[in-house]
Amino acid sequence: MAVCSYCRATVLRDGATTANIGKLSEILEDFSPIQLGTAGVWKGKNFTVIGRLRLKYADGAWNEWNIEFKDGTLAWLSDASGQFVVTQLNASVKPPVGIDQLPVGRNINVNQQKYAVTDARTCVCIGGEGELPASANDGKEFTSVDLRSVGGNGFITFDYSDVPPSVYVGEACSRDELGLSNLRPDEEIERATGKLKGAVTGFDCPSCGASLEYHAGFGESIACPFCRAVVALVGDRRTVIVKQEELDSREPTISLGSKGVIRGKEYQVIGFMARSDGESSEWEEYILFSKDGGFLWLTHSDGEWYLGEVLNSLPADRGDQVYHGGKLFRQKSQYTAKTTFVLGEFNWRVKIGDEVQVTEWVSGEANLSRETYLNEVTWTLSYKFPAAALAKAFALPLAEEPKKTVQSGGIPSSWIIVACVTVFLVNVGAQLMGRGNDGALILAMIALWIPKYISEKFE
User: Fold this and answer.
1) CA–CA dist 452, 419 (Å, integer)
2) Do 154 and 148 form a contact (C-beta atoms < 8 A)?
3) Section 317-335 average pLDDT
4) Is the pTM for the entire model greater than 0.85?
5) Cα 336 versus chain centre, distance
6) DSSP bridge pairs for 288
7) Dihedral of the CA atoms 129, 19, 135, 98 (nearest 10)?
8) pLDDT tens across 155-199, in order?
9) Which contiguous run of DSSP H or E holds residue 113?
C-alpha cells in the first residue's frame, strides 16, 4: 500500500490492479529527525525508511516507521519520545493467552524467555505517508500489548486488531546503535513546518489569555504558571483539561526555563510537579529537555537530589532483588505516588490526582524505580546528584548539602552507648578482681570524657 503525496489517497496494489481504499491525513506538526529515505543498520543489515504511520492514544502520540532491508524484508521502527524499537512480523510466535489476561506488570514466558507486559492500549491512526505494508486509514484503531524481555532489550507486540492476532518480535535500541543517517537537518524542519524541533513556540492560554511558550514537537501538555490550568496540545488546538485555580501556589526550587549543562549537553527545565505518598512524604520532580539528549528527570526529596533517565530495557526483576548493569539492587520501598501540583510542560498529559504504584530498589547511590500507571509500566534509573554539582550546572545559588557534624559540647549517641558498655565491663572486672568501686568510677569518668574530647578536637 502507498500513500499519494498529492491527494493523500491510500492505494492498494493487488497483482496488476490498484484500488483507492481511502485517505490518510498529512502528518502535521511532527518534528522527528527521521524522514523517508533515512538509512540505518539493525543486526548488521542495512535498511531504508520507506513509510510512516502516526498513531495517537489518550495521552500522546508516536511514529511507526516502515523500514525495508536490502533483501526486501520489512520491519517497523518505533520512535517515541527519543526511544527506539525495531520489530518484524513473526508468524511462528503466538500469543499464549487472550488480551484480557495480559494486564500491565504481568510476567509471561514466550518461546522459553521471560517477558513483562509494559504497555496495553488502543490507539488511532491520525496520518501517514510513503509505502506501508497493509491498509490503514484515518481513524483506524489498533489494540495491542507490548512486552519487554526481563533483563534484556527484547521486545514483542501482540496486535489484537488482527484476527488471529499478529505478533511482531524485535528489540529496543538506541539511536547510536541504529547508525541513522540522512536525517532531517534542523533547517529543513524549520523550512518545512515553520517550527524547529525543540524550538520554543508561543500561544495564548485558552483559560486566562496569558502568553505561554512550549517546546514544539515534544510537549503533550503544559500547565499555565498564571492561572494553573493544564492545557492539552493537540495539533493547532489548545484545550483546557484541568483547572488548578483552587490549589495552593508553590514555587519550584529551580525556576522553569533554567538552563544547565549535564553530561556535556545543554538541558532546560521545562516542567515541574509535586508528588506525595499520601502520608508524610512529599517531593519535587523536574523534567529536563535537550534537543540532542532527550529527557532527564531531577528529583528533590529530603534534601537530596537525584538525576534519572527512563530505561529502554528492563532489569532482571527477582522479587526483592533486581539486577541491572552488573549491579544488585535490593528493594527499599513500595508506595502510591499521587500528583499534587504541576507547572510547565510535559511529554504526556499529566493531571492533578494521577496515581502510580511505585516500587524502589537501591544499590549504593543508585536507585531503580518501577512505576505502574493504568496501562503502562516504566523503569527509571537514578543516581544521587550533589547539590553543589547542580548549582554549578545551572548557575544557581543553591547551598551545598548539609554536613553531618557534632555540635560543640554534644556527645553522639553511639559514643554514649560505647561508654556505658565500658562502665559495665569495668565494674564487672572490678568485682571479679576484688577491687573497690573507686577505680571503676575513675575509669568510667575517663570513658565518658574521651568522646567529648574527640568531638571538640575534630569538630
Assistant:
1) 11
2) yes
3) 91
4) no
5) 17
6) 269, 296
7) 180
8) 999 999 999 999 999 999 998 899 999 998 867 655 554 444 445
9) strand 113-131
Q: Same structural domain for residues 379 and 287?
A: yes
117-155 pLDDT, tens digit each: 999 999 999 888 899 987 777 788 999 999 999 999 999
pLDDT at 209: 57
Residue 8 has pLDDT above 50, yes or no: no
Do 278 and 325 lie in one domain? The reply is yes
**Domain around 434:** 413-458
Do 122 and 263 lie in one domain? The reply is no
pLDDT tens digits, residue range 398-408? 555 545 444 44
Distance CA(133)–CA(130), nearest Å, equals 10
User: Do 235 and 287 fall within a single domain?
Assistant: yes
d(C-alpha 171, C-alpha 82), whole Å = 15
Question: Is residue 34 situated within a structural domain?
Answer: yes
- Asked whether residue 231 is domain-assigned, the answer is yes
Helix (H, G, I), strand (E, B) or coil at 193: helix
- Three-state secondary structure call for residue 143: strand
C-alpha cell at 82: 527519543
Residue 132, domain member (yes or no): yes
* Residue 300, SS3 per DSSP: strand
- Regarding whether 338 and 281 lie in a shared domain, the answer is yes
205 in a structural domain: yes
β-strand pairing of 294-301 with 304-310: antiparallel
Number of folded domains in the chain? 3
Query: Nearest Cα to 62, choosing from 121, 16, 104, 14?
Result: 121
**Confidence at 434, pLDDT banded by 50, 70, 90:** low
